[in-house]
Write a structure and sequence with these properties.
It is built from 15 helices and no strands. The chain is mostly helical. It has a single domain, classed as MetI-like (MetI-like fold), CATH 1.10.3720.10. About 25% of the residues are buried.
Length: about 325
């Protein structure tokens, strides 16, 4: 028998076996082995997920369903009676609610700025540009302040005779009515909100940078890429999922976390120019005693957040594939 040839018994066993038969039977064998796993092993993933599902269903989905159902009932003398879409018709006939929806559009336009600020600071910290130690030391300080405290501080700074206008006067610019001009007040409040909350987004960006392959940045620098080129072609594609997350969470924060600032700084004024849906909901439920109308406004706000979030995720996902 030649050296290296298989024994005759092995040759006999392999004769007549169709080529590829073992490969075709492998998935079936794996499926059979999987079906023979103990029942406890197969149920374990569902048991582990069940508490979270029950909490979400009981504390989120069920109250949401109750709120939507309540929005189709009446207020006052019609309390508890089904009124169909009357509350929604009242909403869209109300100039204050229409102003709130216009301000939502303004928030969408300002959203890239609200995301770019913490993203740029996180990039400076990661690339260790001059001053990065200062940024790392102070960036999170505003996030620990109460919105009421932040609003009170900026009421003093942005008053007509406050510090901001005093500085403008020193450089020869006229005073600005930051909180009393309907064309300026909403942008001012959004700017204060971004200052007060960008620390959380910056933390998320820094966590994303921890997963970025530093060798790609080093290779780009060796090839002579400038800082803007490194950011555009290396950092942004590498952080695409982080950017998606920050876009969605920042938009949700703008729509649902500005009540404290609005209440302290403008009270919805001047002339209703700083109304947002969440502030409108509080006014209707707490001051006007119209909880069913407030529920309808809450349902509209939920729909806006859902649509905007899905559109943002789709656009960012597509841009990430193109990069």
């Amino acid at each position: 028998m030649p050296i290296g040839s298989p024994p005759s018994s092995v040759r006999t066993a392999t004769v007549g076996r169709p080529e590829g038969r073992g490969d075709a039977q492998a998935p079936k064998a794996r499926k059979l082995r999987g079906s023979r796993r103990p029942l406890a092993d197969r149920l374990a993933p569902y048991v582990l997920v069940a508490p979270a599902v029950l909490i979400i269903a009981g504390l989120r989905l069920y109250p949401l369903a109750l709120g939507v159902n309540f929005s189709f009932t009446g207020d006052g003398d019609r309390n508890g009676q089904a009124v169909g879409f009357d509350n929604y018709a009242t909403l869209f006939d109300d100039p204050l609610f229409r102003q709130a929806l216009q301000n939502v559009g303004l928030l969408v336009l300002l959203l890239p700025v609200a995301v770019a600020i913490p993203g740029a600071l996180a990039t400076f910290i990661y690339l260790r540009v001059p001053g990065h130690r200062l940024y790392r030391s102070v960036y999170f300080f505003p996030a620990v302040l109460s919105p009421v405290i932040v609003g009170a501080i900026f009421n003093l700074l942005l008053a007509y005779d406050g510090t901001a206008n005093t500085v403008l006067g020193l450089v020869g610019l006229g005073p600005v009515d930051w909180l009393g001009d309907p064309d300026v007040a909403m942008v001012t409040v959004v700017g204060v909100h971004v200052w007060a909350t960008f620390g959380m987004a910056l933390v998320v960006f820094l966590a994303g940078f921890a997963t970025l392959d530093a060798s790609l940045i080093d290779a780009a620098r060796i090839d002579g890429a400038s800082l803007p080129q490194v950011i555009r072609h290396v950092i942004v594609p590498g952080l695409s999922r982080t950017i998606q997350f920050v876009f969605v969470t920042t938009m949700i924060g703008l729509l649902t976390s500005m009540f404290g600032l609005l209440y302290v700084m403008t009270g919805g004024g001047p002339e209703g120019s700083t109304y947002l849906p969440e502030y409108y909901i509080w006014v209707q439920a707490g001051q006007m005693n119209r909880p069913a109308l407030a529920s309808a406004a809450s349902t509209v706000l939920f729909g806006i957040m859902l649509v905007v979030g899905l559109l943002q995720a789709a656009v960012l996902r597509r841009s990430g594939r193109e990069d």
